[in-house]
Amino acid sequence: MSGWLITGGCGFIGSNFVRLAAARRLGPLLVLDALTYAGNLANIVDLLDGGQVSFVRGNVRDSALLAQLFARHDLSHVVHFAAESHVDRSILGPKPFLETNVDGTFALLEAARTAWNGAAGRRLFLQVSTDEVFGSLAPDEPPFDERSPYRPNSPYAASKAAADHLARAWRHTFGLPVAVANCSNNYGPWQFPEKLIPLMILNAIDGKELPVYGDGQQVRDWLHVEDHCEALLAILAGGRAGATYAIGGGDECPNLAIVSAICAEVDRQLGRPAGTADRLIRHVADRPGHDRRYAIDAAQIARELGWRPRHRLLPALPGLIRWYRDHRAWAEAIRSGEYRDYYQRQYGGRLA
Ligand code: NAD
Ligand code: TYD
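Above: inputs. Below: predicted complex with nicotinamide-adenine-dinucleotide.
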């Protein structure tokens, strides 16, 4: 049976995807992950002894390794999650974003092109991308869709945009069967606690300050990670090579409203007086170049592939907070390592 190469399968979305695909007996699934600060084998380790999921530690820029993997395994699908994914880190140091997101995608496209040259049967290279490539929306502008122009603003978004352009060109010039998925902000289990929602949940539980950038009125379109993974599976099953798919929850919410909802629910779950966690909110110096609003019109994927989101953010928060409370050891292992230095660099000056 032909297999799927999942890059970045030990990160937040990749590990949720591997879990869902393994439960559906899809694959075999070969996970390639460099285990950077954001990659954690613990996210999928329980799946590795069934024989359906295997793991190779390696870098997506390693062309020799990629050639070896394509030669040894009959790979029909590539699901390319591996990336440097955090905007704030791309501002502190953009270089790894270009190395992994641009050079890494280039190496992977070349490996697939060489291996799939003339091969028969359905094959797909799914480039997992973001809505941040489209830039920022004004409050009254319609949401992004597949026709929106690319206007990336952060180093992270620019590196993902470059990777998407490479994927598009490899389709156009070399006929590689490529699809691109541009998804909005995800939330869910196993998310690295540098991102807004897990950071605020863990800090609120611990009674630590809650750093809200600027006025906190920036808007994101939130999508549960399971809904994103279902959309990717739908593209892998029935998506068109050459197509792009805009994926989003239609669930716009300003940051401050999310943080307040987390505070109220954490107080409730921990039996603390209402308002306790709210007092930890600090409006801190804004992120340079901070995009004001993202939103996605997901009508195309609904129409073509019948995909629709099943979760909504605010009703999902109580269950998500319980998940992070139940996985303290996982979170603590992360927060005691490199994360501490990052946290100090990112927030030390802002919270002083
Ligand atoms: P993440 O940071 O949690 O995980 C990234 C994974 O990639 C980690 O396991 C890391 O070890 C691995 N990795 C990094 N560099 C690598 C390299 N050079 N070689 C091999 N592996 C490497 O990221 P995420 O939030 O799970 O995002 C996954 C993908 O989805 C990214 O491409 C991101 O741009 C995209 N995306 C994320 C969101 C979101 O809200 N998190 C939304 C839309 C799209
Ligand atoms: P983030 O989770 O980093 O996702 P992205 O920047 O890719 O959208 O941030 C989501 C929003 O939350 C974004 O507007 C920045 C804001 N934010 C804060 O206000 N404080 C924080 O400490 C973090 C990490 C994010």
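The mean pLDDT is 97.
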